[in-house]
Amino acid sequence: MLHYIDRLELPQWYDENIMNMMAVNPTTVHLYWELAFGQWKALQQCILVLNLYDVPSSVSEECEPRLIRSLQLPPYTENWYFNDLQPARRYQAEIGRQEDQRFYSIIKSNIVYIPPATPLATTQEIKWRPTANQVVAAAGPVRQPIKETVQELTESMSFYMGINKAS
């Protein structure tokens, strides 16, 4: 049985229409896609266009995604990097064909959130306090002292620590 596994290989393509985008760093996304063979064949004479959109993150902003980049794809391209993007934004890509000043969508990617370029700064130090047998984060002073001692904690965790209380 194992000798068959040695000969198995992943297929070069899965004959599906898929498009995925992922964040590489705060200013770059990587986009890859696969079009089914029939789709490639039908589009072989078309000029494919790749569009990148800035997607609003809330309802209060404009509702429609804003086109920020558009480029003509070289034939048989299966992936693309977009560099020099704005950090802390959401992006989506789309491939389609351009005909008579109209864009006809073929496939869209997932929406990706690009992280901020710098760590988030907080003005308050987060302190931990116990509440009803749970520990939660609280911004502000600790109001209740921790009543458990190391001995009480050790006794309550004997099972997890591998201590047999019966012996």
Describe the structure.
- The chain has 167 residues and is mainly beta.
- Helix content is 14%, strand content 39%.
- The protein has 2 domains: 103 residues, Immunoglobulin-like; 36 residues, no CATH class.
- Strands 3, 4, 6, 7 and 8 form a 5-stranded antiparallel beta sheet that branches. A 3-stranded antiparallel beta sheet has the order 1-2-5, with no helix packed on it.
- The longest helix is centred in the first third of the chain and has 7 residues.
- The mean pLDDT is 80.
- It holds the Pfam family DUF4912.
CATH C-level label of the largest domain = Mainly Beta
CATH architecture of the largest domain: Sandwich
Q: Which radius of gyration do the C-alpha atoms yield? A: 27 Å
Instruction: Report the average pLDDT across residues.
Output: 80
Q: How many DSSP-defined strands? A: 10
Distance between the termini: 48 Å
Helix content: 10-25%
CATH superfamily of the largest domain: Immunoglobulins
Protein name: DUF4912 domain-containing protein
Search tags:
flat, DUF4912 domain-containing protein, Immunoglobulin-like, 10 strands, 3-stranded antiparallel β-sheet, 5-stranded antiparallel β-sheet, DUF4912, 167 residues, 14% helix, mainly beta
Helices and strands, with pairings:
Elements: H1 2-7, E1 18-25, E2 28-34, H2 37-43, E3 48-55, E4 66-72, E5 79-82, E6 90-99, E7 102-108, E8 112-113, E9 126-131, E10 134-139, H3 150-156, H4 158-161
Antiparallel strand pairs: 1-2, 2-5, 3-4, 3-6, 6-7, 6-8, 9-10
Protein name: DUF4912 domain-containing protein
Pfam family, one: DUF4912
